[in-house]
Specification:
Largest sheet: 4 strands, mixed
Number of helices: 6
Strand content: 5-15%
Order of helices and strands: EEHHHHHEEH
Shape: flat
Amino acid sequence: MTSSIFGLPKIHKNIQQHPMHLIGDAHKSIAHPCAKFLDKKVKSLIFKEDPVCRDSWEFLCKITQIPYKDPYIFITTDVKDLYTVIPHNIGLEWFTDFLFENGTTQDCVNLYEDLTEIVLQNNFIKFENELYIKCRGVALGTACGGYLQIFL
């Protein structure tokens, strides 16, 4: 089974012609169970850290508790195409380093690395009855947010 793809308009980008934000419905993917398992395990390591915000609402709650002082400057940033630009070999290397740094055993690191390779190598998308594979990064909609959050 493969993921299907659909688009959501990026209405904040261009008022006249909305570029599409392509999302893969990975629930039908053969690698989806691996991706879900990895996501749960990795997020348990990421979210034990204090500076991590789970979502925009948590960020807003935390930022309103910080008293504003005149020399402070508030800066925001956006990561362009985070999911789609991480080369698999570099992603796996950083992922493995992250796991070891967080006290994961060698056996678990080997298992998580093997499962991540399965997800990355079976990153198929079906569009208009044609099959495509992502050679770099992860398709949006794939359940491996934890894998990607280690890069931020």
